[in-house]
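Colleagues,

Please find the record for the two-part complex below.
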Amino acid sequence: MVMRWLVGDALAPIVVWDEPFFQGKKHEFTTDCYSTPEHGFSTVRSCKIESGAWAGFEHCGFQGQQFVLERGEYPCWEAWSGSNAYHVERMCSFRPIACAVSAPAPAPPAGRPRAEMSDDCPSLPALGWGSSTVGSFLVRSGAWVCSQYPGYRGFQYLLESDSPAGEYKHVREWGSHAQTGQVQSIRRVQQ
Amino acid sequence: MVMRWLVGDALAPIVVWDEPFFQGKKHEFTTDCYSTPEHGFSTVRSCKIESGAWAGFEHCGFQGQQFVLERGEYPCWEAWSGSNAYHVERMCSFRPIACAVSAPAPAPPAGRPRAEMSDDCPSLPALGWGSSTVGSFLVRSGAWVCSQYPGYRGFQYLLESDSPAGEYKHVREWGSHAQTGQVQSIRRVQQ
């Protein structure tokens, strides 16, 4: 079953670094990586997914804790880990996810970027959003939660249509502890 | 603006404990809690959302890091935090989210529970799934990621339709490090 992944088609790349925040040694992969040490990386400490979706794994050989990585920027371990109960800052193998669905609206916004959304989106970059930040929101209905990293990870901020006019004009208005406007996923809140 | 939440309608409860894993002192809230210390809790260390959606906050007065809490079980800080870059195990105020959307299929499954899904679901309990665990999966198409806690938090496991017949008959088959079948959210993987 593992062999299936070793003969996968070449895809758009995952770019990895051996230091956090896209520093240090860099390598681009377009297909499976069974073992980062074989490529001279003891582990991966930051990565960017430029296209497609990838599955990362804690150990070599696609073993251990799993990390689903959609298009976007992952500057540190916290950005891709789904769990902090089990704190191992390690990603030693990864492979493309062949059957992931394509984003519904891949056209990048033109001019001053603006996107209208009515559905959950685990990766704004996959929608063609050209930046890892958002400057403002207008919430027409319901409650939404936006997150710092793809896949609903990192800091999260609540956006509500019944706050005054649903307008969030500046990063200061959607989170008192927000340091940047970094937002890479957004979804509706369900009850 | 904060006052709006202090006069909100009573809702179905959030139940909180002052120790992890639903241990220690217990209290049930049906409306806003501006300050847990005022109720004799220095902080909340575990909670269950029985209905509705709630916003939790790091500090008293709905300040600091935000946590969106949908229906389900949150046994520890890791279960509700969206970020571990900023490790403060604290939730000192919370309020209902009034405008969250209702889950699309609230009827609980009868008999031997079985649910068919075609859309992302941040809370299986909100769909009427009566347990915090799942015994098996059949993936008809695409790639999905299931997560241990509501809101796509905790350990995560990749489920793919092109793995043999899309069948995951036991927790051992969807994650080598999984200790339980605890699954409380599930969504499609996007590329």
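The mean pLDDT of chain B is 82.

Comments are welcome before we finalize the supplementary table.
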